[in-house]
Amino acid sequence: MKTTGGSVRRSTIRPRRRPESLVEIYEVFRRSGHKQPFEHCGSVTAPDVGMATVMAKECFTRRGEGRHLWVIRRADIHTWSDDSLPDPAADKSYRFAHAYRDVVKKRALARSRAQADAR
Fold first, then answer.
1. CA 18, CA 29: separation in Å to the nearest integer?
2. 4 inside domain
3. How far apart are CA 53 and CA 63, in angstroms?
4. Percentage of the residues of the chain whose pLDDT score is greater than 90
5. Please, which residues bridge with residue 72 across strands?
6. Residue 61 within any structural domain of the chain
């Protein structure tokens, strides 16, 4: 702060930003074809998303490995683990293939019981 003639005024000089705060880390995901899933291929450090996109293209698509890129700021990615997710409210095992494993045997057993009861 500067003092001039008994009054106090704020300095107009802003403190310099540290160099590491000028750049951010961006995570890069790519996919090779239209129906392929996106896969994490690496990260780049850049001052903004435009430069991160250019750097990602140079680093991760120069040999024709991918045709589509996602460039996402690492600070915008939120993660959680299975431990923090709530347990399902009801048993929904019927949604999975293993629940139908013995359907043919059960159907044959039911038919044989029905035929035995009919006699």
1. 29
2. no
3. 16
4. 35
5. 27
6. yes
Q: What total of structural domains would you count in the chain?
A: 1
106 lies in which domain range?
20-77+92-118
> What are 10's two structure tokens?
């704020």
Nearest to 40 by CA among 56, 52, 51: 56
Residue 37 to residue 44: CA distance in whole angstroms: 21
What is the C-alpha separation between 117 and 119, in angstroms, rounded? 6
Domain CATH code at residue 29:
3.10.20.520
Sequence-ordered alpha helix ranges (H) in the chain? 49-60, 103-118
Tokens, residue 68: 């589509």
Model confidence pLDDT, tens digit, residues 40-82: 999 999 999 999 999 999 999 888 788 899 999 999 988 877 7
Q: Is 2 a domain residue?
A: no
DSSP class of residue 35 equals: T
Q: How far apart are the first and last CA of the chain?
A: 104
**Tokens representing 87?**
């347990």
Classify strands 39-46 and 24-31 as parallel, antiparallel or unpaired. Answer: antiparallel
